[in-house]
Amino acid sequence: MPIALLWMVAATHPASGASRSDSVLSQTLADAASSNGVTAVSSPTAAQPSPKGELSAIIDSGKLPGMRWPNFSDYIPSVKKFYETGGYVFAWTSAGRPTPQAMAMIGQFKQAQFKGLNPPDYDAPLWDARLARLAPAVAQPALTDLVRFDLAMTVSSMRYVSDLHLGRINPRHFKFGLGAGAERIDLADFLRNQLLIAQDVPTVIASVERQHAGYRRAEAALAHYLKLEAEGDGPPVPSPVRSIRPGDTFSGIPPLVQRLRQLGDLDAAGDPVLQGTVYQGVLVDAVKHFQVRHGLEPDGILGRGTISELNKPLRLRVMQLDFALERYRWLPPGFAQAPILINIPEFRLRTLRRAEGGFLTMKVVVGKAYRTQTPVFADQMRYVIFRPYWNVPSSIARAELIPKIARDPSYLAAHGFEVVSGNRVITDSDVSAEVLSGLRSGAYQIRQRPGPKNALGLVKFVFPNSYNVYLHGTPAVSLFARARRDFSHGCIRVEDPVALAAWVLRNKPGWTVERIRAAMNGDRPVKVDLDKPIPVLILYSTAVVEPDGQVRFFNDIYGYDKKLQEALAAGYPYPSQ
Fold first, then answer.
1. Which of 145, 258, 270, 525 registers the highest number of CB atoms within 10 A of its CB?
2. Phi-psi bin for 569: left (phi > 0), alpha (psi -120 to 50), beta?
3. How does pLDDT run across 107-139, given as a tens digit for each residue?
4. For 507-541, how does the pLDDT look when each residue is reduced to its tens digit (9 = 90+)?
5. How far apart are CA 71 and CA 311, in angstroms?
6. Which residues pair with 342 in a beta bridge?
7. Looking at the structure, do residues 126 and 169 belong to the same domain, yes or no?
8. Strand 492-494 and strand 471-472: pairing?
9. How far apart are CA 217 and CA 211, in angstroms?
């Protein structure tokens, strides 16, 4: 039996009971080793030196040469506690042989890509060589090999468990206003009291993962896209000189059909249209389906943007799903109230499908990519204001309004603005030179009066935060017809403010849709406090998997995928802040 298969036997036949596991494993490995001319490893003798000194020295240094990422300084307290509570004896070997739990964890490391993680981060390519050193042809393994194997197992297991539970990088490193996510695991306690005695290691590992339905869907989609990636991208769809419209002749029909079938957007096998050179029929429908899934205008036109998305390598889609899983791990495991979710690259707001009050989804407009990005953070919605004033931020006043006032003193009055000091109106007509000077110095502020022309529309949803960001309506409803919708100064404009208000106030007696509309079209601002705050999560994910399994991908408009990729490429220790 080859050495690699010898270890596979141990990994795939976990002990069914503590009383017989060691003897069965020992006999299995001894027999297999003997059949390959490998001398069975004898049990350590009492004269064998204690590993404590060597273990302690490496732990104190925080570096284990030979690992893919040897610096484990961020795990020193956990590793030290793990060995102290175990009396500094080997945890992952018994009589010089790897335990079934060690073999099961190595199996987890080698399959880490199916969790959106990177197998080499847990030394996946290195374990076979380490295992071979524990089965020498003569005598027993060297103490140094046992020490390094044990420490590598401990560090890799701690990294794997922590990465699955919390994610690899703290979102605050990217200045995201997200909390601590799930409660931290005591890694030393988890490894010693759960993993080391586990009869079913995968089940124990699964217990630390997110239980969100969206996380599970993304995990399933990742497995599918890993399979597609392994099969290869196939020939690229040629980029035509001009856009191909329905009814046009297109020489790239064969690779287009192949790509759409591969991605699941086309399943009409044998349709005559697919055998010709005219772009029409079910092929156009399939392209529209693809466009919807990739945040494009579903016009069926094969333009530059659509061709580019069709030819994106599958490894990029795998990475997007990896990052979606990573960002799920940054979120709290549960919520007291059903949250409102806004995904920036998707330009969409949604609520949980199982939430009381029904499922709600709508388009949104978010902050401009190059100047006024919408921040990623979580907070609690506490009240709604119908017919709100818009208190213009000083940055917008300085950059946009004051120059217009300087050119045209009547500009503010013509657009429903007024100059104020606190709540005192200084002027709502032409702006004098003296008032303009006060605006420039910051002594005065600008606000826009309530009404249908107000930049906030007729309703504002407030979750007080340091970013001064909120949800609101808008008079510029034509922007919702665009596929890419990053046009705001950072706040989030919602497509259907009436529906959102009805969902938010669903537990407030008397706040029917009719009353909401009346308040929006009244003659004064109306503030409605919520009885219970509603969590609002403003997130960033370029991959989303719908409940029906449909996978959607979006452009990295703020470059956060690129920043995450760069941070992960640097390796451990990953940034904690």
1. 145
2. alpha
3. 999 999 999 999 999 999 999 999 999 887 666
4. 999 999 999 999 999 989 999 999 999 999 999 99
5. 38
6. 349, 538
7. yes
8. parallel
9. 10
